[in-house]
Amino acid sequence: MTDAQTSSGYSIGQLSQAMASSGIENTQMFPISTRHLTGMIPSTSGVCNPTQVIFMEFANRFVLLVTQTGKIGSLSMASVDVSSAAQQGMFRSADAAEPSTTIKSLLGQRDSPLIHSLASHIVAQISRSHQSGNERPLLFGLSLADSSLLDSNATLSDDFKHTFQGNLH
After folding, report:
1. Which residues 6+ apart lie within 8 Å of 113 measured at CB?
2. E strand segments, 58-115
3. pLDDT score recorded for residue 147
4. More confident residue, 59 or 29
5. What processes does the entry annotate via GO biological process terms (predicted)?
6. Could you report the per-residue pLDDT of 94-139, keeping only the tens digit for each?
7. Torsions phi, psi of 88, nearest 5?
C-alpha cells in the first residue's frame, strides 16, 4: 500500500471523486484546508532540529501538529474563552493582552508549562487572524526531540513562543 492509497486500496483522489459524484461531499467542509511547513528550530543546546508543522482547518476545530520525532506526541485542546474573546474584539489594539484560554491535556504530558503556553499563545493568534466570531478550539499535538522541555519545571522564553507567530495565516 502506497502513501497515496487507503487501506481499501483506492487512492485518495479516487475516494474524493467518488464522494463528489455521489453527493457526499460538503463543499464547505471538504477539502480540508491544510498547511505543511518544514524547518529547523534550534534547541536549548544550540542544535537545530528538523521540525514539521501541520495545520488543518476543520469546520468545528483547528488542528496543529508540531513534531521533531515524526509522532503526534502530547495532545491538548485549547479554546478561547468566549467572554474574553468578545472583550478583545471590543477593545482590540496592537498591544492588547492575549485573551483568556482554557487548556485541557488529552494525551501524554500533563501540566507542562511549554505545552500550555504554546497552545494558549497559538489559539490566541488563530483567534485574532480568524475574526469570524466562530471561536473554534485548537487540537494541539507537540512532540519534541528534547523531551526535557516538556517537564513541569521547564520555562518558555518569549523567543520560542514567537516562533509560531505569523506562520499560520
Report:
1. 152, 154, 155, 156
2. 62-67, 74-80, 101-107
3. 74
4. 59
5. proteasome assembly
6. 445 667 889 999 998 887 887 888 888 888 888 777 665 667 899 9
7. -60, -40
Interacting residues of 143 by C-beta distance below 8 A, sequence separation 6+: 66, 67, 68, 69, 70, 71, 72, 73, 74
| Residue 17 grid cell | 471523486
DSSP 127-147: HHH--SS----EEEEEE-S-G
- The most confident of 85-89, 100-104, 145-149, by mean pLDDT: 100-104
The size of the chain, in residues, is 169
The CATH architecture one would assign to domain 33-161 is 2-Layer Sandwich (3.30)
Read off the amino acid at residue 112: S
User: Could you tell me if 137 and 78 are in contact, meaning their C-beta atoms sit under 8 angstroms apart?
Assistant: yes
CA distance 39 to 41: 7
- In the structure grid, which three cell numbers stand for residue 45, read together? 543546546
Minimal CA–CA distance to 39: which of 138, 166, 153, 164? Answer: 164
Instruction: For the chain, give every domain's residue range.
Output: 1-31, 33-161
